[in-house]
Amino acid sequence: MKKNQSLQKQGKQEERNKVMGYLEKKNGGNREIVILTYLMIGLLLALSVYFGYYLVLKSGTVINSTYNKRSSLLEKRIIRGTIYSADEKVLAETVCDDYGNTERQYPFGSMFVHMIGRYDRGKTGLELSENFHMLRSNINPIVKIANELKGERNPGDNIITTLNTKLQKVAYNALGTYRGAVVAIEPDTGKLLAVVSKPDYDPENLDKDTWEALADNKDGSSRLLNRATQGLYPPGSTFKILTTLEYMRENKKSKNYHYDCGGKGVFDKVKIKCYGNSVHGLLDLKSSFALSCNTSFANIGIIINKKSFRKLCDSFLFNTELPVSIACKQSSFVIDENSEDKDMPQTAIGQGKTMITPIHNAMIIASIANTGILMKPYVVDRRENAYHEVISKTVPSEYGRLMSQKEAAKLTEYMEAVIEEGTGSGLKGANYQAAGKTGSAEYDSTGNTHAWFVGFAPMDHPKIAISVLVEEAGSGGTYALPVAKAVFDEFFKEK
Question: What's the order of all strands across the beta sheet hosting 390-393?
Fold first, then answer.
C-alpha cells in the first residue's frame, strides 16, 4: 500500500515537472519575442528620427547638390518658382511654350546675375541656394493631385528677395565700365538692398563658345567672379576706422593725440607718404581721420599693441566665416603679437597683407550705423506659394555687438568730419547728412590704387549703409564716392 502511494506521488511529481518545464520553455520563448519586439520598435523609432532629420534639415542640401539628378526629375513635375525683387519685379522666371518646353529668363539681363545666379552651366547664386524651395509646390493639395492626374505640372514656390531694382540699377550704371562692386545694406535689419559686381555676363546667353570663353577667363576679366562677396582687396584708408578704434580703446584720452604731418616719414625703417604728397601739418586724431593722413596713422601703427589689434580685428570677423547665407571669401588680417614692428605702419593705413571683401566692409560700416550692433545680412525676405501665401519669412537677427554705442558715436563723428572738412567733400551739401570714409588702396609696387568708399545716411538715423570698390581707378573720393552718392540720391529721392 505504502509502496503504491509512493509510486503515485512519484508519478504526480513527474507530471508536475513536465508541466513546469513546458511553462518555463513557453515563458522563455515569450521573453525572446518581447525582446525582439522591443528591438524592432527601437529600430523603427531610430529610423523615424533619422528620416525626420533628413527631410527637415538635409533634403534641401541634397536636392541643391549639382550631382543630384533628382532635381531634373522634380522639374518634370514642377514649374520652377519665380524670383522677385523687394519691389515685386521679376528677376528670374520659367516661361513655358504651347508644347510644354520651358526656358529660364532674366528680365534684367546681367544686372543681377552674380546674386540671382544662373540656371544653365551649373546653378549659382539664389538659383542654387534656393533650388530646393523653388522645386516645392505648397499650393492646395487637392489642386496638386488634380494637376498631376491631368498630367500638368504644379507651380513651384516663389522667392521674394530684399534687393531693390532702382538701387541696383543706379549702382550698376554708376560703376560704368569699371570693374568693381557695390553693396548696400539696411543697417538695423541686415537686408541687402543692392549687390552689384562688374564685369558681368548674360545668364541667358551661355552657348558653348561663350561659356568656354567665360570659364577660361580668356579676356582676364573674371566675369564669373562675384567681386562683392568673393573679391579680396587691400582696404586702404577705409581700414583706418579700425586703427582709430584700436587707438581709442588703448588711449582713453585719445583727444589729446597730435601729430605734425610733413607729407612723408620713416616709421620703423618703413617709408610712408601721404596720398598725392599732401602735407597736412599739425593734426589731432579727428583731423587725421578726416584728411586720411597716412603718416599720422603710420605713427599710430607703431604705438598700438599688436596683440590687442589682432584681437579687435578678429572680433570684426577677419579670418573667419561671415554670418551671411551666401558664399563669401574670408577677409585676412595676419598681424599678431609675433609680427615684426616694421609690419605695423603699412597695416595701420590699410596696406600690407590685410585683405577684405566689399561685403565685409559694408558690414563693418553698417555696424557703426547701427550703434555698434551687427545684424546678419540676408537676401531672401520670404518664400511664397503660387497664390502669394507666405510659406516662410526671414526674421532679422543680431550677430552681436562689435563696439559700444559710445565708440560707434565717436566714429560717426569722425566720419561726419570726412564729409564736412575732409576727403569726402563730394557728399557735402546733399539733402541728407552722410557719414563716411574714403580709401585709396595700392595694389602694386608702382602706386596704382583701387578706389574705396564706405558710409551711411542719414547720419542721425541711418537707413542705408554702403561699400563701394572701384578697381584700378585711383582716389576713393574721386571714383568710389560718386557711385555711393548716386545710390544715396536715389534712396532719398523725393517720391
Answer: 102-105, 90-96, 83-84, 158-161, 380-384, 390-393
Distances (CA, A) of 318 to 242, 249, 305: 12, 19, 17
pLDDT in tens, 91-102: 999 998 877 788
CB 456 within 8 A of CB 365: yes
**C-alpha–C-alpha distance, residues 272 and 294, integer Å:** 7
| 162-187-450 Cα angle (round to 5) | 90
Among candidates 355, 357, 374, which has minimal Cα distance to 365?
374
Q: Three-class SS of residue 295?
A: helix
pLDDT tens digits along 348-374: 999 999 999 999 999 999 999 999 999
pTM of the model: 0.85
Asked if 127 contacts 161 with a C-beta cutoff of 8 angstroms, the reply is: no
| pLDDT at residue 446 in the model | 79
pLDDT in tens, 186-227: 999 999 999 999 999 999 999 998 999 999 998 889 999 999
Average pLDDT of the chain?
90
CATH class of 74-162: alpha beta
Contact of 243 with 301, CB cutoff 8 Å: yes
Nearest to 425 by CA among 485, 486, 348: 485
Q: In CATH, which superfamily holds the domain spanning 167-378+399-491?
A: DD-peptidase/beta-lactamase superfamily (3.40.710.10)
Residue 45: per-residue pLDDT: 78
Cα–Cα distance measured from residue 349 to residue 344, given in angstroms and rounded to the nearest whole number:
9
User: Which run of H or of E encompasses 197?
Assistant: strand 192-198
395 neighbors 213 (Cβ within 8 angstroms):
no
Q: From the CB of residue 493, how many other CB atoms can be counted at a distance below 10 Å?
A: 10
Rounded Cα gap, residues 433 and 415, in angstroms: 11
Cα–Cα distance for residue pair 482/452, rounded to 1 Å:
11
Q: Please, where are the H alpha helices in 153-232?
A: 165-175, 208-216, 227-230
Domain boundaries, the chain: 1-64, 74-162, 167-378+399-491
List, as one string, the DSSP characters of 63-88.
HH-TT-THHHHHHHHEEPPPEE-TTS
392 phi/psi in degrees, rounded to 5:
-155, 155
Cell of residue 98, nine digits: 504651347
CATH fold match for the domains 74-162 and 167-378+399-491: no
Pairing relationship of beta strands 449-457 and 464-470 according to DSSP bridges: antiparallel
Sheet containing 464-470, strands listed edge to edge, beginning at the edge strand earlier in sequence: 192-198, 180-185, 464-470, 449-457, 435-442
Q: Is the pLDDT of residue 28 over 90?
A: no
Q: What's the burial of 447, exposed, middle or buried (CB within 10 Å: 0-12/13-18/19+)?
A: exposed
